[in-house]
Amino acid sequence: MPQSADKILDHAPLFREPEYKDMLARKAEFENMPPVEQVTQIADWTKSWDYREKNFARESLSVNPAKACQPLGAVFVASGFERTMSFVHGSQGCVAYYRSHLSRHFKEPSSAVSSSMTEDAAVFGGLNNMVDGLANTYKLYSPKMIAVSTTCMAEVIGDDLNAFIATAKDKESVPADFDVPFAHTPAFVGSHVTGYDNMLKGILDHFWKGKEAKPNGSLNIIPGFDGFAVGNNRELKRVLDLMGVDYTILSDVSDQFDTPSDGEFRMYDGGTPIEATKNAVNASATLSLQEYCTPKTLDYAASFGQKTKSLHYPIGVGGTDDLLSSISELTGKPVPEALELERGRLVDAMADSQSWLHGKTYAIYGDPDFVYGMARFVLETGGEPKHCLATNGSKAWEAQMQALFDSSTFGAGCKAWGGRDLWHMRSLLATEEVDLLIGNSYGKYLERDTKTPLIRLMFPIFDRHHHHRFPVWGYQGGLRVLVTILDKIFDCLDQDTMDPGVTDYSFDLTR
Amino acid sequence: MSLDEGTINDPTLPERLIAEVLEAYPDKSRKRRQKHLSVSTTPDAEEKAEGALSECDVKSNVKSIPGVMTIRGCAYAGSKGVVWGPVKDMVHISHGPVGCGQYSWSQRRNYYIGNTGVDSFVTMQFTSDFQERDIVFGGDKKLEKIIDEIDELFPLAKGISIQSECPIGLIGDDIEAVSRKKKKETGKTIVPVRCEGFRGVSQSLGHHIANDAIRDWVFNQDGSEDKFETTPYDVNVIGDYNIGGDAWSSRILLEEIGLRVVGNWSGDATLAEMERAPKAKLNLIHCYRSMNYICRYMEEKYNIPWVEYNFFGPSQIAASLRKIAALFDETIQANAERVIAKYQPLVDAILAKYKPRLEGKTVMLYVGGLRPRHVVNAYDDLGMVITGTGYEFAHSDDYQRTGHYVREGTLIYDDVTGYELERFIEGMRPDLVGSGIKEKYPVQKMGIPFRQMHSWDYSGPYHGYDGFAIFARDMDLAINNPVWGLFKAPWKKEAA
């Protein structure tokens, strides 16, 4: 009997006990699985160049894509405004999925409601669901704002949010002057970064429409969809305060996804105040930290005469230099000495460790801006970002990536893959090996199949805890990214050299 | 809100809490919600004679109210996420936009043995990733192409299921025609499943539709099932999804009493195990809610009886082993007694270790499927008391069965809303809450220990004797961790 009260075995060791091994062997007789030789043969073939070519010839099937759908981005961005409840119009299962997905990453509550449309609403439209739903949400959850987005069901049947919300207000579901911004967020267009853009533009349009901007010298900053938002936004605010900038972060989820444990459940916490959102129309400029999260929103801001600019996820020295220079350029505030010191410390750390980083090869995947920023930092360390992949990356993104590769001698032989998925990445890693893989938790399957060590720096991270509480942006964040990469390199090296009397001649105390 | 102890011994508390939460709703919704909330009452004489402890009478299996934060999922979640997803040697296509497959990817912890991407595909996300043109022009041609691509790149896949997302049924695609055509061309099993998320009111209809798809597209397929020597002891385990290895810690007991498990549905299952199911002598059903349909069909069509069992906690395990054995000969019955006796010392040692730490602790549950009732006795074995329970997607027969598990005065909530659950937990202040990922963090922030009872909170198995040891250990570590004592800063404690 494998189990005992003294030493309770969890699933991992329990099923390796002889009783279970025997049982599983007996079960195999009933399974009709293919013979071992055939499995080995096919397994080897899936890692060949022949397979890679067939795999890349795929036109219709998507396998392990690295992207989610629009409403996830809409729910994420809405949760960064003061006491705002996301109301997603359409089927209810979708909302259960967004909430679970965000909670699994942040280890935090994630609140959102659905209009719970079913078959009758598919036939007659979801107006009644909107009318009843807004009334219930307003009464039960006391929001200051309800941000409406859509699932693909509501989009396919063509529900008109503008008209529906107006009708709901006529029927007194919510007061006539209550804020109900909306955005259509079809899941069959773009990805979660598109949904972020659409919802943010919807919220700004709700508050800014018809207003005349009176430029006041302040700066709007849009962080974009970011799994590290808790740490990053706080770091961003610290930097902006050091520079003495008057700013508004348009959607700040850092408190919403990092509430304390003190006996009280806060359904809402922090977020960009409604008043600040209204006043943001008067900013002199809007700076996006992720270009692909904000094309429509920036156009909209520009239509009010604001200067606009977008970056690619400010990681590392050059990425942070661009961030600070951009803030300086848009606000006229100089970069203070304190930040120059921080820059010097990051460069100092990189110099100390350069011998371990120089020439290392990487595969990087994730959202387009993250992949760009990450690859740029890798190039700064003397690394080579060989395979860069974004399932939601476009041809334009591929061209930007190529320009980045061309800007460094370490970019030779590097390639960007837009619109590809993690099954493509498997072929790349199997046929053209690299030293390290940078991605999210889904990358663990690639690590298993190709033995490429995985570094988790991208949303979602389900199987490691609390990384998102620390920044990866700015010079301070750069230090954290640097240490994360170095730790992986050293841990792998130690693992590889700890066989006593065999490999441990290289098990060096000082590295 | 405070950390003070609630008045758990106040018998009027559940009724008062129901009245309080209903106050918060607009009139129309209040009328609908009040039918879903109740306190279990004294059973009538007939029910008592059948062993009922209480009567749990609430309205169930109707549409959720918009805007209230239902915890329910959809039919796709019931079919792909629950029934089909675990079948390991088939590729399951999430047919439609990318999100549904992405959010459900690898989240149900259906353990399996296999070479992923080569002969097994459970923890992969296959999707047709619908774009606008697919919505406008239809997705059937793309689906055909996808099936061809799967056939080329994953030659060892035994079959394909097509799990419909919302748009499929709305744009009029004919996935059945594509399936028939492709089945002819590839010679493989291809199963279209009409589990669009807007169908029905919860996951539940998805289970039913998935069961029907097995009936229509797996059974009776032109004699393609394997030649199979039967024995008088052949059983199928139905409705065990092998979460954290549950089906394995169950199977080992069934084998020990001398039965031969010829199919496990659907955790760690292969297509062959499903195809041959009609050759078994008996269907053993664990999750009644999600798979009773196919059992009833096999009973009607193939004359295979079915019996419900419960492998949570030693008292139910022993009762279930005896109940199952009683349907076989004396050898099996003697084996059952021998197995129960064999594990008794383990049970005694677990209870000796954990019962003193857990006795008298109160628990509130809100889960799906069978668990709101099936796990009650496992807690009971540890001396813990269920003070509230409810189902995401039960039907009236589930609530009927629940009366056999919970005592009078238990708070019962059907399709509970986020608002209600928070208020109930705050009012009752149980020592432990068992629910899902969306509920975990709000509850913990209130200072109340929590275990996810869908995924076993990344632990398990919880089935069988080996699983009970882990279950007891997990409940103890949740409740008796020192972190719950750190919530209040010392200066605040003094002030209070």
UniProtKB/TrEMBL annotation, chain B:
Q: Does the keyword DNA-binding apply?
A: no
Pfam families per the UniProt record, alphabetical: Oxidored_nitro
Where in this chain does the record put each Nitrogenase/oxidoreductase component domain? 74-477
This entry's Gene Ontology molecular function terms read: nitrogenase activity
Q: Which UniProt keywords apply?
A: ATP-binding, Iron, Iron-sulfur, Metal-binding, Molybdenum, Nitrogen fixation, Nucleotide-binding, Oxidoreductase
- Reaction catalyzed: N2 + 8 reduced [2Fe-2S]-[ferredoxin] + 16 ATP + 16 H2O = H2 + 8 oxidized [2Fe-2S]-[ferredoxin] + 2 NH4(+) + 16 ADP + 16 phosphate + 6 H(+)
Group of enzyme by EC: oxidoreductase
The cofactor required is: [7Fe-Mo-9S-C-homocitryl] cluster; [8Fe-7S] cluster
Specify whether Metal-binding is a keyword of the entry: yes
Q: What are the EC numbers?
A: 1.18.6.1
CDD domains cross-referenced by the UniProt entry:
Nitrogenase_MoFe_alpha
SUPFAM superfamilies according to UniProt: Helical backbone' metal receptor
Q: Where is this region: Disordered?
A: 29-48
PANTHER family associated with the record: NITROGENASE MOLYBDENUM-IRON PROTEIN ALPHA CHAIN
Q: Per the similarity annotation, which family is this?
A: Belongs to the NifD/NifK/NifE/NifN family.
What's this protein's function? This molybdenum-iron protein is part of the nitrogenase complex that catalyzes the key enzymatic reactions in nitrogen fixation.
**What is the protein's quaternary organization?**
Tetramer of two alpha and two beta chains. Forms complex with the iron protein (nitrogenase component 2).
Q: What's the name of the protein?
A: Nitrogenase protein alpha chain
Q: Which organism is it from?
A: Acetobacter lambici
